[in-house]
């Protein structure tokens, strides 16, 4: 496989991966429908740095803005205000 063919294959698989992510189909279902090899999909996704593990590796060592998580407490909680403040600081990453 020459460089032009590799480049075309990478572009093709990049488009396929983007379509799968945008469409919300499962990888297995999409590959079956399109006649693609599922292992090739995962290989190209990793190779192009588009797998979830690749994203984590790219962000390692840097602060990444996260979202919020809803916390639901199903019973009354009694805690002194100072402990609540300390807990909130720990959650936010403050010492």
Q: Could you characterize the architecture of this molecule?
A:
By secondary structure, the chain is mainly alpha-helical. The chain is built from five helices and no strands.
Provide keyphrases for this structure.
single chain, 95 residues, mainly alpha, 5 helices, elongated
Element string (H = helix, E = strand): HHHHH
Reported for the largest beta sheet, the result is:
none
Q: Kindly, what is the distance between the CA atoms of the first and last residues, rounded to a whole number of angstroms?
A: 54 Å
Portion of residues within helices: 55-70%
Look at the structure and give the mean pLDDT.
80
Total strands: 0
Please give the radius of gyration in angstroms.
Answer: 22 Å
Strand content: under 5%
Low-confidence stretches: none
Could you say which structural class the secondary elements and strand pairing correspond to? mainly alpha
By DSSP (H or I, 4+ residues per run), the number of helices equals 5
Overall, the morphology is elongated
């Amino acid at each position: 496989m020459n460089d032009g063919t590799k480049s075309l294959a990478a572009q093709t698989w990049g488009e396929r991966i983007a379509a799968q992510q945008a469409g919300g189909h499962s990888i297995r279902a999409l590959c079956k429908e399109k006649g693609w090899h599922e292992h090739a999909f995962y290989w190209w996704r990793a190779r192009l740095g588009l797998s979830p593990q690749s994203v984590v590796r790219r962000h390692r060592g840097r602060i990444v803005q996260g979202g919020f998580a809803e916390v639901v407490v199903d019973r009354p909680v009694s805690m002194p205000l100072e402990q609540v403040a300390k807990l909130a600081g720990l959650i936010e990453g403050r010492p």
